[in-house]
Design goal:
By secondary structure, this protein is α+β, with helices and mostly antiparallel strands. It is built from 4 helices and 6 strands; from the N terminus they run αββααββαββ. The protein starts with a helix and ends with a strand. The structure holds iron/sulfur cluster.
Amino acid sequence: KKTLDEIMKEDKWEVDEKPHIVVDYEQCEKCQSKPCLYLCPAGCYTLSESGKIMFNHEGCLECGTCRVICPLKAIKWEYPEPGKGIHYRYG
Ligand code: SF4
């Protein structure tokens, strides 16, 4: 039986140069809890040394979690262009 890591390695990404998620960092400055840091399964959200949210759309699984959990609605989320983003392979 395959592990989740092995299954994930079979998926591939076509990185869309235009990010499909746009973060309003001014809102992030006001956010106390920053749940995106803990709940994004791909670890796309990180904290800089100075404590600012940083976002990298490469590796995004398009799960939609960040869009739902952001308490300040600071995340503008669209699907990537057709053919871009993650290509899941099942089986
Ligand atoms: Fe992370 Fe999912 Fe948001 Fe992509 S859609 S950045 S994987 S939480």
